[in-house]
């Protein structure tokens, strides 16, 4: 009878300990996935937000140089090669845009970026310097104002893209904080399981066996 009770007691202890160990294993798997998600989240912040913000800044600088050339801001500047210079800046901008397109774009980002690209490739694709200047009438102010308006539209697209980086960055950081808080909860859960496991093993190893006892 005593041997039968002892055997049942061992089986119960074995089952309880096995369940607790399985819970620890499951918790470790979940925590491992959580840390993987956190790592992915911070990589996304860098690759798709911080790097993209540098793209936007680079594009904005080149767009500013184009506007200076169109507006003839420097009266002492030699404008004989201005079309080639504008074209060079536009090619450089499109190269950055290509890198931008390879990042993880939201639908809104894709819309603004496509609109910006259209302005650069079509609206600011100046074929002849005579559209900007002629010896007889000087700077073609009406046409320059049209180009300035297109550049202003392009800047609005860049501003909208920059604002999206801030919004998406905040969203990703909030997601990372949630994952970190969840990991802290799992860590507390693990401590609780370990305490229960220690108690169970203590009762099994050190609690005296009573003949009429029905549980651990």
UniProtKB/TrEMBL annotation:
It comes from the Bacteria. Residues 15-178 form the Chemotaxis methyl-accepting receptor HlyB-like 4HB MCP domain. The chain crosses the membrane at residues 185-206. Pfam families: 4HB_MCP_1. Keywords: Membrane, Transmembrane, Transmembrane helix. This is Chemotaxis methyl-accepting receptor HlyB-like 4HB MCP domain-containing protein. It comes from Algoriphagus confluentis.
């Amino acid at each position: 009878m005593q041997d039968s009770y002892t055997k049942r007691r061992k089986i119960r202890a074995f089952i309880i300990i096995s369940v607790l160990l399985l819970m620890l294993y499951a918790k470790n798997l979940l925590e491992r996935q959580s840390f993987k998600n956190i790592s992915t989240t911070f990589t996304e912040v860098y690759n798709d937000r911080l790097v993209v913000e540098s793209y936007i800044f680079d594009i904005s600088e080149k767009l500013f140089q184009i506007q200076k050339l169109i507006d003839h801001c420097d009266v002492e500047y030699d404008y004989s090669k201005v079309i080639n210079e504008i074209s060079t800046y536009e090619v450089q901008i499109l190269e950055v845009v290509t890198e931008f397109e390879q990042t993880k774009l939201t639908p809104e980002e894709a819309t603004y970026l496509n609109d910006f690209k259209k302005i650069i490739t079509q609206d600011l694709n100046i074929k002849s310097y005579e559209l900007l200047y002629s010896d007889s009438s000087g700077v073609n102010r009406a046409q320059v104002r049209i180009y300035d308006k297109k550049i202003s539209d392009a800047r609005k697209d860049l501003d909208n893209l920059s604002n999206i980086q801030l919004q998406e960055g905040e969203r990703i950081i909030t997601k990372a904080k949630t994952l970190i808080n969840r990991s802290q909860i799992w860590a507390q859960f693990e401590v609780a399981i370990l305490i229960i496991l220690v108690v169970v093993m203590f009762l099994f190893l050190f609690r005296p066996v009573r003949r009429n006892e029905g549980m651990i």
